[in-house]
Write a structure and sequence with these properties.
251 residues; alpha/beta; five-stranded antiparallel beta sheet; 9 helices; 35% helix; globular
Length: 251
């Protein structure tokens, strides 16, 4: 509550003094970070800067060494946290598509709905069809992953994540494994999600997407946040020399 009596917004994701080490190597070096509800935050930076580790710590696919991560105000790093319940609010899309190759597109979209959300077969099918239509792949409902292009597989992966009704979506370099001509179809789906108001945290090397869709851009290097702000500032008028060097290399 603020001094004037209005409610303060609880961030969708709030990171406090996050640190992560693998043995002697400190990958995340203690920083604060947040994503507000309905915000699209694009995380950029060189390979090895800790971007993907940050993303994986948010839903505890990696265990933080220290610090706190709050999901809609609830601490997912607390020893008493119901991690599965909190994780169910978070959709995750990886670099590799992680589809089950032996299952049809429909089964890929319904298996978690049935087991985790406890939906009936009819309801799970309805949700799956709706989300496949959302990503423009309803005609592939009976296909198997091996019969789809990389771009189509990634769009199915997005539809699968959406079928769990997440409050927010995490994208870990979702176009990095794709041939250049397939990148656009995946980014188009992500643009639509942003337009619909989905909270999104996107690790990406697609500077055009970050410029066009991001509400905020975060530049990471060597396990720390170097610079963050609106895309027009970070990408158009960076304040740090390290940011300027990176952008010169990737453009």
């Amino acid at each position: 509550m603020t001094t004037d009596g209005s409610q303060t917004q609880v961030p969708a994701i709030e990171v406090r003094d996050l640190r992560k080490s693998f043995g002697e190597l400190e990958v995340l070096k203690g920083f604060d970070f947040h994503v507000n509800e309905g915000e699209v935050v694009c995380v950029i930076g060189p390979s090895g800067s800790g971007k993907s580790t940050l993303l994986r710590c948010v839903n505890r696919l990696e265990e933080p060494t220290s610090g706190q991560i709050l999901i809609e105000g609830e601490d997912i790093t607390d020893v008493d946290a119901d991690v599965d319940a909190l994780r169910s609010r978070i959709g995750m899309v990886f670099q590799s598509f992680n589809l089950f190759p032996h299952l049809s597109v429909l089964r890929n979209l319904t298996i978690a709905q049935r087991r985790v959300r406890r939906r009936s077969k009819a309801e799970a099918h309805e949700v799956a069809r709706s989300n496949l239509e959302r990503v423009g792949l309803l005609d592939k409902i009976d296909a198997y992953p091996s019969h789809l292009s990389g771009g189509q597989q990634q769009r199915v992966a997005i539809a699968r994540a959406l079928s769990m009704d997440p409050d927010m979506m995490l994208f870990d370099e979702p176009t990095s494994a794709l041939d250049p001509e397939l990148v656009g179809e995946v980014l188009a789906v992500m643009r639509d999600l942003a337009t619909e108001g989905m909270t999104m945290m996107v690790v990406t090397h697609e500077m055009g997407f970050a410029q066009e869709v991001g509400d905020r851009v975060v530049f990471m290097d060597d396990g720390a946040v170097v610079e963050e702000g609106p895309p027009e500032q970070v990408l158009g008028d960076p304040q740090h020399e390290r940011t300027r060097r990176f952008l010169k290399m990737v453009r």
